[in-house]
């Protein structure tokens, strides 16, 4: 199962999405017996890569936020002890 195939949400995979949708339109019955399977595999790989990039960016952002929070807590603790 894949996420909704909206081009604006998946700019990295836009070309493959268009090819996949065209394949489904061109082969309305053959799609059930594997006509578009190669494109589906490419699409799944693209989605995995896209998700890995998002995961990495989110991790970096959370790391920065955590460091900022720890610095703030440290400043607060120092202010209280004074």
TrEMBL record:
Q: Which UniProt keywords apply?
A: Disulfide bond, Mitochondrion
Q: Localized where? A: Mitochondrion
UniProt entry tagged with the keyword DNA-binding: no
Under InterPro entries, the record lists: Cyt_c_biogenesis_Cmc1-like
Mind telling me which GO cellular component terms the entry cites?
A: mitochondrion
Spell out the family assignment given in the record's similarity comment. Belongs to the CMC family.
What is the protein name given in its UniProt record?
Answer: COX assembly mitochondrial protein
């Amino acid at each position: 199962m894949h996420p909704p195939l909206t081009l604006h949400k998946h700019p990295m995979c836009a070309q493959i999405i268009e090819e996949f949708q065209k394949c489904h339109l061109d082969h309305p019955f053959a799609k059930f017996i594997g006509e578009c399977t190669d494109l589906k595999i490419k699409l799944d790989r693209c989605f995995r890569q896209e998700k890995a990039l998002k995961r990495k960016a989110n991790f970096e952002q959370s790391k920065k936020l955590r460091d900022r929070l720890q610095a703030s807590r440290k400043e607060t603790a120092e202010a209280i002890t004074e």
